[in-house]
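Researcher: Re-running this chain for the archive, since the previous output was lost when a drive failed. Same request as before.
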Amino acid sequence: MTHPTAQPWRPNAIQEVVILWVLGFLGIIIAFLLFSGSSIPKLVATVGFLYLPLIAMRWRDEDYRDYGLTLRAWRQDLKLFLGLSLIVFPLFFLGFSAWVEIVPHLPPELARLLTPHSGPGHFVPRLPPRFGEWIIDQVFVVALPEEFFYRGYMQTRLRDAWPGGRKVLGVRLGPAFWLTAALFALGHLAIFQAWRLSVFFPALIFGWMRERSGTIVGAALFHAASNLFVHFLEVSFFGGP
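Model: Regenerated structure tokens:
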């Protein structure tokens, strides 16, 4: 008498996302503990964000295009990126300038929790050294891998589990959108500094862009530009490298 072959256990969408997120998070923490001060932790993060989802994608015969890594909507992606940049960056500059004025008046303990900067700042526009290398690094090493993992893979799989939501600016946003942004922020605590949780807010824009265009290209461009703009402001207000 033959018995049916047992099927291998496969996690559901939520379990799959959580397992891969935990593996990625632990890998980055271990890399920081073992190789602090080197480029190894960043390399581990980049490789993990690009390749961890492949473990599950192979089960379903999927590829990167199924999770938004495609140029099929590049015109819309470019318009979204340019339009949001023109709106968000001037507003962020005003907010950053006001924040620089507030920080010196905060209790030192609170200031250390809320910002990596201390003391007064004065705006003198200047580009960071090796800014061209920073552009390449932020686009291809930081933003694209993170956007593929979080907004491409994670937000898509969580949306499979929770397809509902409310429309916001023409896009339906549900639990997948909010949880992806929260896990993105928590993932930045691999370097344990409370102010790093602030990335939750730009993650909301990245997630909205992913749903609006159906790809991650515009979100990746805006993510990289945001990081570069913040670095420009930090150097311009506080000096340093």
